[in-house]
Amino acid sequence: MRAFLPLLTFIAFFLGSGIYYHLQGAEFAFYKLPSPVATLPAIILAFLLMKGTFDKKVNTFMEGLADHNILTMCLIYLLAGAFGSVVKAIGGVDAVIFWGMKIMPENFLLPGFFLLAALISTSIGTSMGTISALGPIALGLAETGGLEKALVFGALIGGAMFGDNLSFISDTTIAATRSQGCSMKDKFRVNFRLSLPAALLTAVILFLLFAPGHAVSVKEMEIFKALPYAVVLILALLGVNVFLVLVLGILLAGGLGLFATEGYSLLQWAQDIYAGFKDMQEIFLLSLFMGGLGQMMKVEGGIAILRGLFKKMKFQSARLEKLWAEFSIALSVSIANLAVANNTVAILITGDLAKEISKAEQVPAPRSASLLDIFSCVIQGLIPYGAQILLASQMAKLSPLALVGEVHYCYILGGMTLVSMFWRASRTKTSLNYSA
After folding, report:
1. Is 83 part of a structural domain of the chain?
2. Exposed / middle / buried, residue 298 (Cβ in 10 Å: 0-12, 13-18, 19+)
3. How many domains does the chain have?
4. Which residues contact 235 (CB under 8 A, 6 or more apart)?
5. Would 133 be classed as within a structural domain?
6. Which pTM was predicted?
7. Which domain holds residue 24?
8. Could you tell me if residue 403 is inside a domain?
9. Nearest CA-CA partner of 369 in 177, 169, 237, 172
10. Considering only CA atoms, which of 328, 344, 323 is closest in space to residue 388?
11. For the segment 108-164, what is each residue's pLDDT rounded down to a tens digit?
12. Is 23 within a domain?
């Protein structure tokens, strides 16, 4: 377990600081200590524990930073941040909100609001951004419609987590696909088969719970300003390289800003791009540091230890072996997310383990990436100390615990994914005979 101690140190610092500040009554307690800083004690410990010369340790750490997947992930983060920042600046988010609310029938307002949140979060790739943008509308919907605020904000959180899990520019999607070595398009297809039915079932439940009230006013905005989101989504689904997709999205959004938005200038465009870069600073640094830490753990046998913990259980049935492999991936990322209260961090921590398990047990990479992303987002959308519920509870003036039971989508998605595991295992026919 020696090689595993640095990771436990990171979790202890990250989780411990959150618990401390929570007991002090601080808002967003689990986000007070920046996650990249929480990795520093773990990295120092890894240097102390690793065998060999100091130069060897530095080279190993740098190999992790320079890993192709890590660098690719970091560049995608920067471009995704720039795209989201520019489109928001030209009014793209407001356009989606206005036209989404405008076309919704009154008796479909609550499920429609959930689906609107799902659409926006898929477009902009961030659950926090979605909750921030739609929170005031959720509050108005609850007050004017005479609905329970917990129900409305639960629908908002569920819709936000839909896109956080599925979007091509979500940091969880980027981390999951890069860590498992699969394309975003393939992961999307696997993920969508579970997410869409879960979303539709959630909409039905919300429809049954909804009682019509009064209309909710939103800021009017031209629909063409939402065009960059549509273009990025379509190109990504067509399998166009993600770098090209995001660059084209930034260029299209900037062009709309320059030619169709009053007062928008080249300088403002440049500033918005850089603002997007800065928004991704924390996850950028965290990914680099975790890459270096992960490489040091790997060299010291840490990944082998982690994999061994999940391989102690042996089965004579290939069906149970397949089920246990997928369940191990889901369980590992869920435990990590419960510990650090950050779904992207959880994926970065467990990505190598999931890849090892998926290779050994022949779990397709898109499936493995989907399981990582789904269960990290399910847990993140349900823990009362997670940023999403904390933000929503602050906007709704409700206890986080009051919202946990109303995030129907996360419960349904998690349940449907577990059912899919049993269904896939039941289709495995080959029997196995292990001697070890």
Report:
1. no
2. middle
3. 1
4. 244, 245, 248
5. no
6. 0.73
7. 1-49
8. no
9. 177
10. 344
11. 778 888 998 898 888 878 887 788 777 767 776 777 666 788 998 999 999 999 999
12. yes
